[in-house]
Amino acid sequence: MRKVYIKGIGQTPVREHWDAGLRDLAAQAVLAAMDDAGRSDVDALYAGNMLSGPLSGQEHLGVLIAEHAGLPGIEAVKVEAACGSAAAAFRQGVLAVASGMVESVVCVGVEKLTEMSGYATTQGLASAADADYETAMGMNFVAINALLMQRYMYEFGYRKQDFAAFGISAHENATHNPNAMFRSPITAAQYERAKMIVDPINLLDSSPIADGAAAVVLTADPDNAIEIAACEIGTDSIAIDNRENPLWLQGVERSVVKAIRSAGVSQRDIDLFELHDAFSIMAALSLEASGFAERGQAVKLANDGAFRRNSNLPTCTMGGLKGRGHPVGATGLYQIVEAAMQLRRQAPDALQIPDARIAMAQNIGGSGATVITTILKNLA
To answer: Catalytic: which of 17, 68, 171, 326?
Structure first.
């Protein structure tokens, strides 16, 4: 297998895009990435998306986007892995170029979540859970994460307010990201006053649904490009009651172990981590299963500032899912685009991580059933 590189990146602002449909958002990101790569064509397109069918009445998304972006006739398919759809599409692109089956690929993640009612969107998102053993019992993803957070607090002795550090750090970074949905900081007092959704998860523990698209162009040409050192998938059971320990994300551990080995690095070499902070508890569990914190210690470390922008492991450097927003089927490619911006020294001045050379991005589908960990390098 040959090495694969990111040659171009593109994204739309994360917003409520009332004036643009799925194909419009996706094409904007695709064309921006191709322009950045200096290309007018590619051999294939892989589209990550979760809910185009139930929320937009549109499947067969790959060909639709390719045609709208001026790429008719190329190989084009949709990839679905719940909130991990975009990084799963990215991995398909990496494999296609690495194998030599194609020379160039554009991978795009796109989602529109804000045009239907909140009930319809919540119902659609719940389809990523186990339909027979979770959804049928009335569980949605806020409820599932509330159970995890409640158990974590019981096991490790934390108070609810101890989780505020994750949201405060993410919103602080989003303030400087022009593509972020929420560009304002939050305080510990605002966190404690935030509206409760499902106890103990409140509004500032939960990432917002949103619309958006992000894309990358991949080739085997290393010239002025970011190396994809690893892109690995780990899986676990969908229903959390089937897991040996619900507070240990085995899908994350499996994905990270493979990625670290493939990239030939260790956790100490990672200069920044774009993690999947869909909920505060998911940020803590991801950090622990990824090897950046001992079990039960991620919340303490967050309160010590261990994951802030000026720390040894900056996380969610552009605002993460909480501050930038979470257009679920597009999120994984936003994370990869943001990591590439850091390595290219193209992040906004206030967010640029000095001397960043190795970045990790982790996209999680469901409550940890599908996990894609990507490691990028810029050793120039």
So the answer is: 326
Instruction: Work out whether the CA dihedral 339, 210, 96, 363 comes out positive or negative.
Output: positive
Distance CA 87, CA 253 (A): 17
Bond before 200 cis per omega within 30 degrees = yes
Chain centroid offset of residue 105 CA: 20
Its sign, for the CA torsion 64, 69, 72, 74, is negative
> Which DSSP category does 45 fall into?
E
Contact 97, 219 (CB under 8 A): yes
Residues 39 and 98 sit within 8 Å (Cβ to Cβ): no
Residues 139-186 have pLDDT tens digits of 999 999 999 999 999 999 999 999 999 999 999 999 999 999 999 999
171 is catalytic: no
Burial level of 141, CB count in 10 A (0-12/13-18/19+)? buried
Q: Is 83 assigned a catalytic role?
A: yes
What are φ and ψ of residue 187, in 5° steps? -115, 165
DSSP-assigned letters across all residues of 74-91: SEEEEE-BTBTHHHHHHH
Tokens, residue 7: 């040659």
Question: Residues 6 or more apart from 142 whose CB is under 8 A from it?
Answer: 197, 198, 201, 206, 279
Q: Among the options 17, 68, 83, 276, which is catalytic?
A: 83
**pLDDT tens digits, 114-143:** 999 989 999 999 999 999 999 999 999 999
Burial tier of 224 (Cβ tally within 10 Å: 0-12, 13-18, 19+): exposed
Q: Please state, in angstroms and rounded to a whole number, the distance separating the CA atoms of residues 120 and 277.
A: 23
